[in-house]
Amino acid sequence: MVLQVQASTYEAKTQEIAKQLLAATQENRSFFSSLRDQMRWDDKLLAWAMSNPGLRVQLFRFIDTLPALHSKSEIASHLQEYLGDESVELPAALKGMLNFANPDSMPGQVAATTVGTAVETLAHKYISGENIKQVIKTVERLRKEKMAFTIDLLGEAVITEAEAQSYLERYLELIQQLVEASKNWAVIPAIDEADGEPIPKVQVSVKLTAFYSQFDPLDAKGSEERVSDRIRILLRRAKELGAAVHFDMEQYAYKDITLSILKKLLLEEEFRQRTDIGMTIQAYLRDSEQDTKDLISWLKQRGYPLTIRLVKGAYWDQETIKAAQKHWPQPVYNDKAATDANFETITQLLLENHQYVYSAIGSHNVRSHARAIAIAESLNVPRRRFELQVLYGMGDKVAKALVDKGYRVRVYCPYGELLPGMAYLIRRLLENTANSSFLRQNLENRPIEELLAPPIVKEEKNSFTPNSHFLGAADTDYAVDEVRRKGVQAFQSVRQQLGKTYLPLINGEYVNTPEFVDSLNPSNFSEVVGKVGLMSVEQAEQAMQAAKAAFPGWRKTPAKQRADILRKAGDLMELRRAELSVWIVLEVGKPVKEADGEVSEAIDFCRYYADEIERLDKGVNYDIAGETNRYIYQPRGIAVVISPWNFPLAIACGMTVSALVSGNCTLLKPAETSSIIAAKLTEILVDAGFPKGVFQYVPGKGSQVGAYLVNHPETHVIAFTGSQEVGCRIYAEAATLKPGQKHMKRVIAEMGGKNAIIVDESADLDQAVVGVVQSAFGYSGQKCSAASRVIVLEPIYDTFVQRLVEATKSLNIGEAELPSTQVGPVIDANARDRIREYIEKGKAEAEVALELPAPEQGYFIGPVIFSEVSPNAVISQEEIFGPVLAVIRVKDFQEALVVANGTNYALTGGLYSRTPSHIQQAQTEFEVGNLYINRNITGAIVGRQPFGGFKLSGVGSKAGGPDYLLQFLEPRAVTENIQRQGFAPIEGAD
Q: What is the pTM of this model?
């Protein structure tokens, strides 16, 4: 069904104006200019990208890499690697140019120069200058053409506080110099005044997130305070100098907090009467119409108008991918027509409220501009309250046609060094070459009726369903205000339950114990989270006998029934998500977002393994004529699960439920420091319906109860996650046949890693620095997958270390429950002291690039970065399990791989590179169970990145993957001869 946008009263006028504008933009170019255009390489590149989707992807990837390439031979070899890919059909001219044997050869150098220059020329089309001097020249030219401007500063992502401060200072300098230059500009009535009111000649556009490097909706209050302080400085200075300031809108995650910060700030006494400030609405967002209505009501209350710039939105690909990966609803329209229709709806809304709002309509679509003009003219909107905007280099002809018709046009001019501006350039190129782009369709001389037709909105289907059959649980979206409030309530509710006692569960009963231990909050060790009853060896024996008695019944329970109990457990966790997160934060000191991600993982394990057992339960048929052959699985018996404290819910849950759903009776012995979270998991598994004796919770000392269960002759499977030392001991003990034991024990052991990330010279350093910081210091480096080594190639080593140090300095260290915290405590005093010893060893072996101070009241250790570390140093070889990072310098990529593989471990590894041959080589030669390319190396997702390593990182199959349950099952083959007296049932016979 097709929903037609209502043919409104404005349509006839829209068509008339649009046709006039279009005619002006399509006037034939002179023979000479079209001839010259045919010869320019930048135009050729664009034309090829439009006509060839495979080339478009590889070309834009190459352009993205260009800033990192420092020599012509590097450019030439990357050109060949990207465009020589088999998937790319090359135009003859490009094929000829790439046909060189060696990047250092003369043809290679020529190719590098030609394409490098073409990309630079392209960048100059969309970037208004590389420095303030060039920008002033550009805006003076625009003013001669009767166009106003707004300037936006391009640059590296703001990932350090030094960069955030520099962003503010560069804007203050920019405003100062523009205002200085403007003193010599004659007044141009078309753009400098309207309705008898002067309009500021100078306008800048800024991004809110760039004012604070740790900007995060979860920490709404902290982000608001830090950002507002810097914005006030900017707005005061702009007022002194008479310049206007406009706030751009960025990714969807920041939208609500951006609007909220600006609304609050612009109601302050000092700023309430200012009308030289603007905000932005993105029409591709599904909630943008409601946001516009809310802004208009707020402006009525404020009593003084502001500008609202309406744009389509520039992050469509990013938003759709992020939502698909996170299993969140799509925030953007999937259909361009829906965005166009919404753009027209909001245009009307803004212009109908012109007494409260100045509208700035930003588009390159002639119809969008014509629609705005039709409405503005019909409503007699005063000139001051309405302007049209285009991006520099994108809508030149449209802009000229609009100026000629007497409208105020403002050109959005990004400025900055060309190379950091590449991300911006690629967004513009994507926009220019997309099939649905108005600019492209106009270039292709589509019929006027088609170009100017009202947008027809099709009924939407969500086109972004993941490829795999398994759909994971969605993490909490902390950008939503209501969700943050629920989180605060969950903390209040759990705090009232602190100090309770948790007992072992044996054969369906909670039993008292001879010994108790306090579980403390690592962020504040004076706070007791609860008391845990530690069972005796005698009680462990009772649990073992109960499991033995329950096994015959449980093994006969149909797989479907076991799977449904598991799904129910997953649903109960989803219901208790906020509360479970809080227990994780308080008992093991994991920051809020990471705790929430852990709950998602536990839910995923329940649902994934439920699906898996149903798949495996079908078995396999290998029938032939006269004989059936069935391959089936049966449970092994009794499983002992020894779970770690660092993923106290997810790993405990994953190992336990995989054993249970496979039909084994299971005893869960958690790490002592995280026994309360395991008790919460126990409540859920009991409520879900696991029968008594089938699942039992057996907290106790590892050296006593753990060792007893590992050595027990009735134990069939041991699933362990923890240190290499304990894992190897379990492996050895399990191999010894005990009196009365009639089977070999199966051991699944995950034993940590010494994980490395390689950063090569083509890497995107913004991305690499952020990824390394997250991988090394997330949860204080206490994940088995955490990065503890970074191997950096010589040409970028110093730059990388400098930015890494600045980014790490900008992290907030504090109690895990504070929304601003990125680095919380380590687990306990033993861990803290052990890590301190390693830091001392590191000081003897390497240079300290950074050592951050840490709070005193908990088990805190500030992040430490060592530079110039030898690959064989103790801190490069031994697992530290804390926020300590060794940065190793290497000559080339080959050496980087040798160093990366030069430890006893093989768990996770990462590579930041934009060199296709390096990516290819790492995939085959980097010895790790989980390799992550151009992203952080922690946070494996069930059914997407099955997790586990080899060498001394562990034994057994990957958790959350298709082979994992096989370890808890025995395979059997059953063959039956179905011939009787020489006849057999034959399929297909009458």
A: 0.94
CB 721 within 8 A of CB 643: yes
431/447 Cα distance (integer angstroms): 21
**pLDDT tens, residue by residue, 247-290:** 999 999 999 999 999 999 999 999 999 999 999 999 999 999 99
Residue with the two structure tokens 């909001």: 346
- Closest Cα partner for 705 from 829, 543, 551? 543
Tell which residue, 923, 842, 915, has the closest CA to residue 876: 842
Q: Which of 413, 606, 665, 784 is catalytic?
A: 784
Neighbours of 403 (CB within 10 A): 17
CA dihedral (140, 142, 146, 149) in degrees, to 10, reads -90
Task: Give per-residue pLDDT as tens, 601-644.
Answer: 999 999 999 999 999 999 999 999 999 999 999 999 999 999 99
Q: Integer distance in angstroms from the first to the last C-alpha of the chain? A: 49
- Residue 946 is encoded by which pair of tokens? 């099955």
The catalytic position among 319, 598, 750, 879 is: 750
What residue spans of 498-576 are helical by DSSP H? 537-556, 559-575
Q: What is the dihedral of CA 952, 957, 960, 961, to 10 degrees?
A: 130
The one-letter amino acid at 229 = D
- 389 forms beta bridges with 362, 410
Q: Which helix (H) or strand (E) holds 848?
A: strand 847-851
950-951 and 930-933 beta bridge pairing: unpaired
Residue 295 CA to its chain's centroid (Å): 29
Q: Among residues 322, 513, 366, 426, which one has the least CA distance to residue 63?
A: 426
DSSP state at residue 332: B
784 is catalytic: yes
Quote the tokens at residue 37.
Answer: 């255009």
Structure tokens at 595: 């705790």
In this structure, the dihedral spanned by the alpha carbons of residues 433, 437, 440 and 444, taken in order and rounded to 10 degrees, is 130
The number of angstroms, rounded, from the C-alpha of 902 to the middle of its chain's C-alpha atoms is 30
Record the tokens describing residue 833, joined without a space.
């002291």
